[in-house]
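seq as requested:
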Amino acid sequence: MAQPPILSLESISLQQGGRWLFGGPDNDALDLHVGPRDRLALIGRNGAGKTTLFRLIDDLIEPDKGERKVKPGLRIVVLEQDPDFSGFDTLMDFALAGSHPPAEYEVEAIAGQLGIDMATPSSGASGGERRRAAIARALAQDPDLLLMDEPTNHLDLAAIDWLESWLDRYKGAFIVISHDRTFLKRLTKATIWLDRGTLRRKEIGFGGYDAWEEQVYAEEARAAEKLDAKLKLEAHWLERGVTARRKRNQGRLEKLYQMRAQRAAMITPVGGAKLGLATEEEFKSKSVIVAQDVSKSFGERKIIRDFSLRIQRGDRIGVVGSNGAGKTTLLKLLTGELEPDTGKVDISKKLTGVMIDQQRSLMEPDKTVRQVLAEGGDWIDVRGNRKHVQGYLKDFLFDPKIVDTKVGIMSGGERSRLLLAREFARKSNLLVLDEPTNDLDLETLDLLQEVIADYEGTVLIVSHDRDFLDKTVTVTLGLDGSGFVDIVAGGYEDWDAKRRKRNKGPSKAKAERGDTPAAPAPVPKSPPKSDKLSYKDQRDYELLPARIEELEAAIAKGEAMLADPDLYTSDPQKFANINQGVENARAEKNAAEERWLELAELVEG
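struct tokens:
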């Protein structure tokens, strides 16, 4: 039997800045009911009102119409995207000032697991330290309903794993706004979608959101056939663009997988070339950055140790690792900003780089969008091609009417998108992205993936966004803090599978000796026989690729069925069975992929 909601927003309408953000004459009033164990993903574009909805839930603002109802004694805690640390001497002072002040020992217990010293002065704390302190404060307050706005921003992979584990055990309800697709897929059980003033809810986790979104837009497109053609074009250009972009990205992903397979054939333990798709001379002629036996230390600590790699034109290199593992140091070594202690880095004299940093420091709040993009004019030079500034804004999912809006009144996500638009217009053949996904909504992330895929130069990306790396990079450089750098052809999941296997098996000793693990080979259509495999191993090696394809098809079919908006209400048991089947298929697929990788290593020797 369904439990009564712990919080309800009923028939809510709200005006902001002279327009109806929710409800009003053009949209249905907003309704939301939150159950005691709900795990909700809140999805919506930048500016759709997600943060405002949180403020309504937390009773910080009142609606113009409608009613807010809560269970007596309900404890609501908000983990803000950018909490204000001013006025607090230390991180502990900040943590103890929550809406439901926790005991200091409770904060310390969580802070210890997150690896943060709460005695750190607030004024000098890094973004990652502040984010951990905010998490410690929020979780220590023992909320019944936890509202999280971009909780993984500034967190490294270890902290994200810890937070996912905590939330998986959490007994209360939560609503989360996040651009981190992997985080959302792992934790959420239902999705609420805020779109053009309307809030929709579907009892599927974020994994089924894309199919649901496309279904809604397809229904709207059919209805729009009855509208005047000009009106239809104006009202639906963005929605059609999202759907078309997603379809194009499927082709780009296929190309990315091919590039990874080619790169796998070239990577050796020292990052050189071997026989495969290119000769040694061809491989060298395409190299733009060559690192050879590079090491770097700060004091007694070895940050980078005996690192070698050839980076070619068109490579997309992802750099991952915990905070402090050496990601920024490696990036500076590869771009020539930092000199190695030993070894050398040769950089092509033809490289012209553009760096987009995580601080968005290049944006000036008093300038207008037109001034930022086109120096106050109507035209912008986009990598040598002249384009009208309003048309270019449309390419980056902006309403062209914002051209004279000041940067200072734009949301953080909009400013980040504007910075991307400006920097991608510059002529360059090296793009350096430092945590590019912070503050971006999901549609902008799709766009960023598309722009990177179409970029003709070389890309270096430092990111903790696992899904983003899986969809953009051809090679992953993984740092564990010991100084050694793993070089893996593929994305985050490929590196993580390699890391987990090494930590479990004999290859851990190999890593400790400093050998860089070879990249996983692409799945062969006709697997070679190997004297190193038993009969059962050989059978698994031959049959697992087909089984993995079957499981992927089953997962896709199950997710499509879960996207049916009527399934949960008409047949909850069938919905639960399909959902469990999808989870089982995912687990079997992960195990099959890991098993095949182990066998592939034996075959490749």
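The chain has a mean pLDDT of 81.
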